[in-house]
């Protein structure tokens, strides 16, 4: 599959060129979207009659490291009726301390499986999802410290009195 | 290693690490809080369910996962691509060949060597992956039968699965976790005489499949127990990202082997069975099991075609080297790639981010089909009878190794 010109044109027209950046990847349309319009873009992509991205495959969080100081959240969307694919990327600041940083609007209301996928991203990378109905840890125990897939992650020394690092 | 204390006792060490979401004070008078698992045979591994019931009607289910979390994604960040394959096996441990196949294809696509893989290697890969798909569906159907109270089919399924495991052991040297499909090739060629033995097995299997279909899938007791139970409507299934036999059970002809047409699947002839609600409503537990049973027939068909090709134009030759295209060093360009394929349980995907000129990926994310399929459990289970919960869980066919990774 090649870059989908029609889809990109439509997105640019609707949300403005400055908010949606296109980059070429192996075989897909990859858009970097500003986080303030992520929810609207997702809703548009799902409901638009000529694309109908009704299937959310995967949500990936990637920590870009301390130098770049950002975390990427990546959404892989599929359209079952038109057999199309698109990848959305959102960049957020990775600092956890201040408000509004490291948070992305939740898309749970659009695709229901985003619920668990977002919880997993929160669990392993510490990305907060705004308006998520139940943002708890999912794979790790609820009282685990830190977010393991961050590049500067350090193991806690003891967990419930048991030495962690062996 | 410095000397350090292995365990320090404190009073609050005994606090629960995964507390219940519902508290007793939140419940209404008639409601009950029941805990199932993690060590419960019908949860197929270590899954804990917190169930709120009103009499026998389920009000809510809260799954608690992570008891089998083995940090796959963290491990993958510190290992070369080819070293990750044994870990990939251990995610979905009843269908390791399929996971390996998809992983190897993903890495090959990043290296741009997809077209260099010899045809014989591709056919052997599909052959072993389909054998493993049969084994996985046998476990699914067999354990489902035992969940809802039929013991015989389980033993029959295990007997036939044993043949497959022995075939795969002959190929790779191990029964469950193979490390057979490598990036760019295979560990070994098929052993001498394998094709004939495999053909014999398929000839043996076909009457047995018929027998099993009569014994369980079309059995009146089984139909009464599963038809109209745990109905999953198609629009909900798509919205929840359900894939594999569960999605097809809800009536959508969607198989990534056809949609993405990867490997040599376009050259092979097979159907995509879907649930039609023959015994009850489309998308009920019976439909899901029926789809799995029909897929066994399709896999047998694919295996026959593979053997046909492997004994005629792609015959074994003295100088055939299954490792000919295996790269010395796996060093893809810097890129992001999401690669997906159809594992027995659904859409298994890998999201790779590579580093320029490095053998170690920056990030590997697994899109686990079982994880996503399991997330619909509360939605389906709400409002059903408590006894049906086990029937619903069993029909999902998840492996906790892949849910927790």
Could you characterize the architecture of this molecule?
The complex is a heterodimer of chains A (166) and B (405). Chain A has 166 residues and is α/β, with parallel strands linked by helices. Chain A contains 3 helices and 9 strands; from the N terminus they run αββαββββαβββ. Chain A has one domain: NADH:ubiquinone oxidoreductase Nqo5 subunit (Beta Polymerase, domain 2). Chain A has a 5-stranded mixed beta sheet with strand order 1-2-5-4-3. The longest helix of chain A has 12 residues. Chain B has 405 residues and is α+β, with helices and mostly antiparallel strands. Chain B has one domain: Cytochrome-c3 Hydrogenase, chain B (Orthogonal Bundle). Chain B has 15 helices and 8 strands. In chain B, the strands form 3 sheets. Chain B has a 3-stranded antiparallel beta sheet. Chain B has a 3-stranded antiparallel beta sheet with strand order 6-7-8. The radius of gyration of chain B is 22 Å and the shape is globular. Chain B starts with 30 loop residues before the first strand and ends with a helix. The mean pLDDT of chain B is 88.
Summarize this structure as a short list of keywords or feature phrases:
heterodimer; A: 166 residues; alpha/beta; Beta Polymerase, domain 2; 5-stranded mixed sheet; two-stranded parallel sheet; 9 strands; elongated; B: 405 residues; alpha+beta; Cytochrome-c3 Hydrogenase, chain B; 3-stranded antiparallel sheet; 15 helices; 8 strands
